[in-house]
């Protein structure tokens, strides 16, 4: 019989509690510590009213606390939704609004980002807030329901097809293709989301974001082809600066080409293959220089 992820961890904690389970940067822990901490978190989530199928967000840096959050949420029979603290508040707000969480777990200096994100998300019901540190800070606009002792001292998944969301008006809004997901700088990125943010600036006639595979450790390079509106003053510097308010730094294009009109294929659509080839040629020439 297949075992769930949290059950596998519990079994290992019973078999070899002192064996090394996690090593993340300067943190290291055995199986026993996260097993105990995640059990405690699961009990706390049940105590504040979380039930099977509830979505629980956790806004924590990439550290042991994030793994414990995931395990505890699963043990509470809830669905975990990871939030990246490096994301700007508007992007956090979109994710929170889309999943309507019952509870949000937050750690450290992320309180301000969460407060701003919740204010912008315009949820029908405010989520419960759980604090990862032993003592919850006084943060205006955030009502901390419970604290969870910090134990760190010791993807969306898409296959094929279209990505979309259901808006408040009940309509389905197209976001992009699953096959436009890439991995760059250690993150999975939806190129269509970058295009949406660019189009929302009101500075461009049209744009296309493509990925060009690189040989370096950073993975694919994010490249943007754009045609600015007359007198918009749009250039790579101004566009990158404007995007910082909507996207995390790892999603910002690193290579840009300005066009009067973007190239089109025989079907009258933007010729992304031609754009990729042009960026590839440009990057190859730069590498040889």
Topology:
Layout: H1 5-15, E1 20-24, E2 27-30, H2 32-47, E3 55-59, H3 64-75, E4 79-83, H4 89-99, E5 103-106, H5 111-121, E6 128-131, E7 144-147, E8 162-166, E9 172-177, E10 181-184, E11 187-190, H6 191-199, E12 204-212, E13 221-228, H7 236-243, E14 255-258, H8 272-288
Parallel strand pairs: 3-4, 3-5, 5-6, 6-7, 13-14
Antiparallel strand pairs: 1-2, 8-9, 10-11, 12-13
Helix pairs in contact: 2-3, 4-5
Report on the structure:
There is one protein chain. With 289 residues, this protein is α/β, with parallel strands linked by helices. The protein has two domains: 5-147, Rossmann fold (3-Layer(aba) Sandwich), CATH 3.40.50.980; 162-288, GMP Synthetase, Chain A, domain 3 (2-Layer Sandwich), CATH 3.30.300. It is built from eight helices and 14 strands. It has helices at 5-15, 32-47, 64-75, 89-99, 111-121, 191-199, 236-243, 272-288; strands at residues 20-24, 27-30, 55-59, 79-83, 103-106, 128-131, 144-147, 162-166, 172-177, 181-184, 187-190, 204-212, 221-228, 255-258. The strands form five sheets. A five-stranded parallel β-sheet has the order 4-3-5-6-7, sandwiched between helices. Strand 13, helix 7 (236-243) and strand 14 (255-258) form a beta-alpha-beta unit. Helix 2 (32-47) crosses helix 3 (64-75) and helix 4 crosses helix 5 (111-121). The longest helix has 17 residues, at 272-288. The radius of gyration is 22 Å and the shape is globular. It starts with a helix and ends with a helix.
């Amino acid at each position: 019989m297949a075992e769930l992820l949290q059950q596998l961890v519990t079994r290992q904690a019973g078999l070899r509690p002192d064996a090394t389970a996690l090593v993340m940067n300067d943190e290291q822990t055995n199986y026993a510590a996260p097993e105990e901490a995640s059990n405690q978190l699961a009990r706390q989530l049940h105590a504040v009213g979380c039930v099977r199928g509830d979505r629980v967000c956790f806004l924590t840096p990439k550290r042991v606390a994030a793994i414990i959050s995931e395990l505890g949420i699963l043990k509470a029979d809830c669905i975990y939704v990871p939030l990246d603290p490096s994301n700007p508040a508007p992007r956090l707000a979109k994710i929170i609004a889309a999943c309507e969480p019952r509870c949000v777990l937050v750690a450290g200096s992320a309180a301000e980002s969460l407060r701003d994100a919740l204010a912008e998300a315009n949820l029908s019901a405010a989520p419960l807030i759980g604090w990862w540190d032993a003592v919850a800070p006084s943060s205006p606009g955030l009502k901390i329901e419970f604290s969870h002792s910090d134990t760190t001292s010791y993807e969306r998944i898409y296959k094929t097809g279209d990505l979309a969301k259901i808006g408040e008006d009940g309509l389905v809004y197209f976001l992009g293709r699953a096959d436009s997901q890439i991995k760059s700088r250690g993150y999975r990125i939806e190129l269509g989301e970058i295009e949406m943010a660019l189009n929302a600036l009101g500075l461009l006639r049209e744009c296309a974001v493509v990925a060009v595979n690189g040989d370096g450790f950073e993975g694919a390079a994010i490249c943007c082809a754009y045609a600015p509106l007359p007198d918009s003053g749009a250039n790579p510097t101004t566009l990158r600066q404007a995007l910082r308010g909507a996207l995390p730094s790892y999603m910002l294009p690193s290579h840009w080409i300005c066009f009067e009109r973007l190239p089109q294929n025989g079907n009258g659509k933007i010729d992304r293959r031609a754009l990729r080839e042009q960026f590839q040629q440009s990057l190859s020439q730069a590498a040889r220089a």
